[in-house]
Amino acid sequence: MSTNDHQRSAIVVTGLMKQYGATRAVDGLSFEVAHGEVFGLLGPNGAGKTTTVEILEGYRQADAGEVRVLGLDPFVDGTALRSRVGVMLQEGGLYPGLRTREVIRLFAAYHGVGHASADQLLDDVGLTTDRDRMVRRLSGGQRQRLSLACALVGTPEMLVLDEPTAGMDPQARATTWELVRSVVARGTTVVLTTHLLDEAERLCDRVAIVAAGRLAALGSPHELTSGERREVRFTTAVTLDPAKLAHALDLALDAVVADPAGQYRIQAAGTPSLIADLATFLRDHDIAINSLEAGRQSLEDVFMQLVTEEGNG
Amino acid sequence: MTRSALVAQVRAELTMTLRRGESLMVTLAIPLGVLVFFSKLDATIPDGYDDPVDFLLPGVIALAVMSAAMVSLGIATGFERRYGVLKRLGATPLSRRGLVVAKTVTVLLLEVLQLGLIVAVGAALGWTPNAGALPAVAIVIIGTVAFAGIGMLLAGTLRAEATLALSNALFLMLLFLGGMAYPIDKLPAVLESLADVLPAAALSECLRGLLVPGFGFPIGSFVVLSVWAVGAPLLAVRRFRWEE
Q1: Mean of the per-residue pLDDT values for chain B?
Q2: What is the pTM of this model?
Q3: B158-187 as b/e, with b when 16 or more CB fall inside 10 Å?
């Protein structure tokens, strides 16, 4: 990538390393985020997601590698970035002893924003009826929404969200996704961490799957899931002999497995001809089918596969 | 950080301080209670004072400074650190420096409220102000720096619950060893020599030196107080961790 492209990127991370004692929390991570993009860091707990975003937020200094956020080094140029980057931490970080509206107006004052815009934002996150409630009396999901509003109040160029919908019920989660989409629509770059696969799939333009501090995969949810599933699963009304089916499909005898839940797994790509052969077998033996999963893999499949491989390697 | 951000932060800090019942207890109720109670109980007042309130008022001002700068500030900051508030504010344009400035202004404003009430109650009990009041303000500020240093050292290094327990314990211990409600020369010799090097007695003795006519300014106490006012904040700055 040329220097020009680097300047066009909102975030450039190259060979990022961060070690705590003997543990390598981040181990040579590289990625770029374009302006206006929604970029997800997906991974299991302890994969290094939070460490990575905290380096982007300027809380921690990288041991090695280069980090540029809006063209600046977040650890050195924190002051310049603070008014341009909205941050939402995993643990709220809001005053429990203030009322909801007092908190949003306080954050508005940090950014020189008036009360009217602050109150409007409170409405956007659905907290108007809770405006006089003490933060300590809000539910976990309400606190998260207030925290998001605080990150947005300065109309930042970039938003860094660490597990933004943790602790939210499905409705609050949908409201939050809607809000993030509306922010993206006005050109804000968003970096978020999540361990929720559907969140990554619905919200992100591109996803980096991180495992053990390393990049396991990078691409759009569509690209990541376009690989053929290496398995076809189905359930039937009556039991069948897996070895017989494997023989009929021209596969190794152990390629069809019955799992204890009564589901059959065919360890082969779900090609049209395989599905046709399976259907023929079931017709010949007069076995009714209850469910069949084949075709494109879900992000969860990719994720489980990569994380398992990483764990074994 | 802008001026309006600072003003908003000070207002928020003051609001929270005045909303905390335990904070009002330790910063207002206890100092005023000590002043009223011991002024009616002249058994512990040393000889040479026309009125118990002349002895008590400087000590109660020292107690008030200790409660605002060490206990109230320390506990509030400790829990803000626990809840991740300090971390979050570090990512806003207010910045950490702005937060420290706002907290300083808040403590000073709280002390204005405390001193106003103490002087009013003291006057009602027969105390009359004198020429020592102005230099006493300077001593109050030095004492505030010393105790705020101790409070921030606790808040920035210990768990929030430990800060809560320890700052309350120190408050109680220094109330007894600080020459506030009764003179330290009535303490056993060992405790008296310990009290002499602690900031509480140093502050109350300095205030007495300025506010009680004919008492004489205690240079030794002033040196002790100054050492605490330099040492405690320096140590706090070096050891303070923004995240628990």
Answers
A1: 93
A2: 0.84
A3: bebeebbebbeebbeebbebbbbbbbbeeb
